Amino acid sequence: MKLTTKLTTLGLGLALPLSIVSCKDAEKKAGEAAADAKEKVAAATAEGKDKVEAAAADAKAKIEDAATDAKAKVMAAIPKGASGIVGMFDKINSSLEGVTDLESAKEAMPALENAGNMVKKGMAAMGGDDKMEAALEAAPEVKAKFGAAMGALMGHMQRIKTASPEAYEFIDKKMDAIMK
Hints:
The chain has 180 residues and is mostly helical. The chain has helices spanning 3-97, 102-126, 129-138, 140-163, 165-179.
């Protein structure tokens, strides 16, 4: 065998085990680096998740507080609006007290129109019939006054209908037009 062949064989014999050891070291280091990276990603993800959950809980609490405050303000305002509407029905009733015929119905119409427009605006400001119902349920004393005012209104309209059907028709058509 030639000297160069022997040296090459000897070199390969020494280099090959070193290469295998180097590859195993590199593989081990790559595995450790991957595990370390995985741990860091998991830690960062957990930290981020905790921060997101904390922010979400904080936002939810603020939303609930704002909703509670808004509901309290609305509920505080509703009975006032309902009381105002009951007051307008009282004005309608006082205007209807003097109606006995078509002529007195025509004389009462400006006051009836004014009160009817105020009722319509008040109902719109409260949010409609459903909100009025909620307001009446929330304030039993206002509900009782509303019931009494509506009862008086029905009584006046029945009295007018019996005394003067034409006055009743005149008032009924005008008030229907206002309340639409």
